[in-house]
Fold:
Amino acid sequence: MAANRRTFLRHSMLGLGSGLMILISPKGSRAQNTKRPNVLFAIADDQSFPHAGIYGSRMVQTPAFDRVAREGVLFTDAYASAPQCSPNRATILTGRPIWQLEEAGTHASLFPSKFQVYPDLLEQAGYHIGYTGKPWSPGNWKDGGWSRNPAGPDYNRRSLQRPTSGIAKNDYAGNFEDFLAARPADTPFCFWYGASEPHRGYEPGSGLKAGKRLDDAEVPPFLPDQPEIREDLLDYAREIEWFDYHLGQMLNTLEEIGELENTLIVVTSDNGMPFPGAKATLYDYGTHMPLAVCWGAQVQSGRVVDDFIPFIDFAPTFLDAAGVAIPSEMTGRSFLPVLLAQGSGQIDPSRDYVLCGRERHSHSRFDNWGYPARSIRKGDYLYIHNFKPDRWPAGDPEGYHDIDGGPTKDWMMQHREQIPALFRHAFDKHPQEELFDLKSDL
Structure:
């Protein structure tokens, strides 16, 4: 399945040839451009791969994401370092995996200020930095010793009338304009656009109200194909489109002020969709993320790249592009050479696997116990090691609170006898070791 999707993307959607050109720039080298690039990092909240139009999804329309992909590179194998908001965002900011980040490696905890983050390093190098929406969160950065969120100063003053009750009132695109207006002249910027969408909860029926049809819903194989679940998926898709709408407004703003060509734009999500068997799990729908990157003429357009990109590689890539030294503590590595190469397919043969992990997600087990686990994804195979198989991975059965509440979870809990295999996959205890062939398994 994964190989077929990659072939489809390369040859049907973007009309690329079958030959692979492997022209890799030296590690740590920038493109031949004396002007330092701006950085726009756009991250959705709870959007799984492949839920973007250019990936072939029919239930969601994402013209802005698709534009970034067509003007740059569409990645087929990008992976969150952790399947939850705050630990994965900490790995993005630090360029380090969760097992190196102490309290920041678990959910809704602290973020010790001793860890260097790329926004601070870029600010020290003369960049104007800031964020709108959801930064490093949830968690307590003040008790970690920070004077501000690790993502930088906030730009959240503007609000607007939201189209559904599940969508945030934040005017992300308007706040981006305020950020740009505050930028000193001739100063490069680094901006974090963190939407709250498509995080739950959703306004029931909002997808149908927007003109979507139940037949459009794409039900993954680990969920029951029921009308209630199809409607829930359409509500989720509606919120992805809101994230994409604001991204489109930001791209238009950059184009209007003449900064689009010199802005490295990275668009992704923080972890998987908030459905049973996805978010907060190390299964593919919990860690496999959409990713599109462009940077004007610096990056050849219309490429589809299969290199494995872990999220710990974002921070060193941003620093590398800006010509800022990458701290030795950052164990991620810049994928700028992949961006500056030409052609599609596998560019760097060493990028053929990723490591992911999780500790605690919600307060859902006796005495606040976590569920520590690690995984390796290589090719179409996924291996997971669960260190505490005696515990409930989705939270204790009183509520399975490691799974976000919603119509899909409710339906599966109420009809568990009708779907024993699907229920076990998402809710029951798991063995210490799990191995999946993703071409044929859940």
